[in-house]
Amino acid sequence: MKEQILYTSSPAQTQQLAGVFASLLKGGEIAFLRGPIGAGKTVFVKGVAAALGMKSSPTSASFSLMKRYHKGQRTLYHIDLFRLSEGEVFNLGFEEMLEDEKAVILAEWPDPLARMMPKDRLEMNFVLQEGDRRRIELRAFGPVSQALAEELWKSQNK
Description:
CATH class: Alpha Beta
Order of helices and strands: EHEHEEHEEEH
Strand order of the largest sheet: 1-7-6-2-5-4-3
Number of helices: 4
Distance between the termini: 22 Å
Number of domains: 1
Largest sheet: 7 strands, mixed
CATH topology: Rossmann fold
């Protein structure tokens, strides 16, 4: 597992990065987004949804826990586990989401999923820096996520 680091300097640039991320998706990818409130996790999810052509724009899923967006053959699950314990995660149907091989799962605050974390996943840690600057640390677990992280890193380091 190799760690790659990306930087954005504005919310618009974070959404642009999310658009590149979305262009690399084939279906079945899972990304866990970590970072403090206001670090850009939901901004990133909005950018992915927009780039995938989803009709509605994601908002923080903190109060609804999980939102499903669908466009054509694409399904995007946006999960926010900020307020959940490990035992409460079973009620979300995460295992069913994993069975949808064409779906993309983006989970904020994923720690309650610790026992159910799939072997192939991309973990993204959003770190606040000065102003609107963000450091996004990518850690890939598995070949699909490793290829995704490498392509994302290459897109920013051309």
